[in-house]
């Protein structure tokens, strides 16, 4: 018999790893028991050991304190306690969390919706959950009492076979358009002009089967500089000047503290498009002009091309 703790970030893939490697163990998981605490799991583990079963627990177990009771139980029963640490990054977990929500709800919920949904669904949560885990996490060691600590690298599963479509993910401000006034972003449609050479290049990609999809941060909405309707009007005017139909998704939320998955460089807007349009990440490009666009592309698993290179003559 043994006790195995599979630990790591929320949405890091612990359940999949547990199912593939520990199918013969009795799985005890806090989420499947409703409002159970980690302390509530210890008697269930003891009962399983009494019945001669090995046990696997795939909760987050961020701290030494959260793991201590199970290690104490193992020592008391002379049962080895192993740790399998799924060492995914916070960026991996961000992608997984969004992918899971989009697949379950058909779209990326807003921060307010996530708050409501999280009351009944522990697998629906905002970015702050991942930030808190990163801050609290204490690396597991054999000095705690583990018989062994196995660190497992995260590997993303292949995309579903039907994900064959290709797309351009396009930033807007500084990539497709600029303002006549010199402002950082437009507040009215009349202040917009498109940058040279955009239409021709985009039409060429469109003719090759690429979907054109816009991804933009519009924190001016949260600051009160423009309304949601005016932001949409500015995108519509940009598309009109380009002579193209581009579906745009944008983040209207505050830049800090980050409380949403849709603000670049968070991968939410990309994952939502990838799932809804069955995009092949290997044939999807992110075109932008800022470091946040590059990081966004990396987190989404797509290639980044700087706008100056992409649109050069």
Describe the structure.
The chain has 313 residues and is an alpha/beta fold. The chain folds into 2 domains: 3-152, Rossmann fold, CATH 3.40.50; 165-310, 3-Layer(aba) Sandwich (Rossmann fold), CATH 3.40.50.1000. The protein has helices spanning 14-21, 38-50, 64-77, 90-105, 111-118, 127-136, 198-207, 220-223, 228-242, 268-276, 291-300, 307-310, and strands at residues 3-7, 26-27, 55-57, 81-86, 148-152, 165-170, 177-179, 192-194, 210-217, 247-251, 279-288, 303-306. Strands 2-3-1-4-5 form a 5-stranded parallel beta sheet, with helices on both faces. Strand 11, helix 11 (291-300) and strand 12 (303-306) form a beta-alpha-beta unit. The longest helix is centred in the N-terminal third of the chain and has 16 residues, at 90-105.
Find the CATH topology of the largest domain: Rossmann fold
Provide the β-strand percentage band. Answer: 15-25%
The helix-and-strand class reads alpha/beta
Low-confidence stretches: none
Q: Which percent range fits the helix content?
A: 25-40%
Question: How many beta-strand segments?
Answer: 12
The level-1 CATH class of the largest domain: Alpha Beta
Strand order of the largest sheet: 2-3-1-4-5
Q: Concise description?
A:
With 313 residues, the chain is an alpha/beta fold.
Give a topology summary:
Blueprint: E1 3-7, H1 14-21, E2 26-27, H2 38-50, E3 55-57, H3 64-77, E4 81-86, H4 90-105, H5 111-118, H6 127-136, E5 148-152, E6 165-170, E7 177-179, E8 192-194, H7 198-207, E9 210-217, H8 220-223, H9 228-242, E10 247-251, H10 268-276, E11 279-288, H11 291-300, E12 303-306, H12 307-310
Parallel strand pairs: 1-3, 1-4, 2-3, 4-5, 6-9, 6-11, 9-10, 11-12
Antiparallel strand pairs: 7-8
Helix pairs in contact: 2-3, 4-10
């Amino acid at each position: 018999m043994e006790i195995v703790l599979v630990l790591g970030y929320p949405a890091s893939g612990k359940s999949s790893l547990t199912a593939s490697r520990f199918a013969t163990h009795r799985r005890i998981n806090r989420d499947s028991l409703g409002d159970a605490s980690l302390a509530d799991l210890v008697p269930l583990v003891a009962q399983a050991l009494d019945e001669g079963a090995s046990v696997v627990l795939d909760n987050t177990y961020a701290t030494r304190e959260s793991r201590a009771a199970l290690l104490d139980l193992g020592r008391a029963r002379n049962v080895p306690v192993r740790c399998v640490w799924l060492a995914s990054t916070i960026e991996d977990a961000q992608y997984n969390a969004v992918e899971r929500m989009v697949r379950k709800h058909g779209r990326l919920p807003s921060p307010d919706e996530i708050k409501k949904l999280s009351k009944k669904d522990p697998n629906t949560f905002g970015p702050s959950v991942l930030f808190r885990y990163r801050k609290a996490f204490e690396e597991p060691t054999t000095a705690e009492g583990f018989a062994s600590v196995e660190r497992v690298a995260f590997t993303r599963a292949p995309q579903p076979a039907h994900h064959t479509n290709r797309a351009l993910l396009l930033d807007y401000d500084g990539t497709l358009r600029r303002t006549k006034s010199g402002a950082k972003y437009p507040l009215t449609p009349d202040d917009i002009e498109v940058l040279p050479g955009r239409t021709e290049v985009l039409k060429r990609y469109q003719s090759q089967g690429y979907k054109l999809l816009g991804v933009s941060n519009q924190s001016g909405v949260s600051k009160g500089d423009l309304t949601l309707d005016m932001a949409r009007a500015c995108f519509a005017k940009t598309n009109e000047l380009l002579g193209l139909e581009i579906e745009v998704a944008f983040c209207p939320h505050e830049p800090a503290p980050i409380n949403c998955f849709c603000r670049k460089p968070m991968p939410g807007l990309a994952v939502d498009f990838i799932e809804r349009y069955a995009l092949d990440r290997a044939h999807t490009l992110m075109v932008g002009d800022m470091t946040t666009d590059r990081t966004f592309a990396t987190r989404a698993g797509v290639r980044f091309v700087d706008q100056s290179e992409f649109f050069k003559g």
